[in-house]
Amino acid sequence: HGIYIEYRSNVTVKNLVVKDWLYGVYLEGSEDCKLINNTVSNNGDGIYLKRSSDNVLTNNTVSYNEYRGIYLDLSNNNLIYNNVFNNTENVYISGINTWNVTKRPGKNI
User: Fold this and answer.
1) pLDDT tens track for 13-31
2) Cβ atoms < 10 Å from Cβ of 39
3) How far is residue 63's CA from residue 33's CA, in Å, rounded to a whole number?
4) pLDDT computed for residue 102 by the predictor
5) What are phi and psi of 7, to 5 degrees?
6) Banded pLDDT at 109 (limits 50, 70, 90)
């Protein structure tokens, strides 16, 4: 794992480049974490959330990952917006999450 966060809350991962791992960023049982402005590429799965909720993922570039860009496994109530995904399979979802916010000033993706 490039970044592994298990059963934690209020962790911020910001401005990192994570590449060449089985899982670029892996959160399990975590809540209220933030992934902001990261580049996650050339991994098996880019971002993997397992039983994680109430996290925010924004302004990340998730690309060229072998399996999926983001894998949400039994994860709910995460806010995912303004990210760039460029993978063979961008998203796998098992749970209910929010993928957008009200348009804000500046660049919106």
Assistant:
1) 999 999 999 999 999 999 9
2) 16
3) 21
4) 79
5) 50, 55
6) low
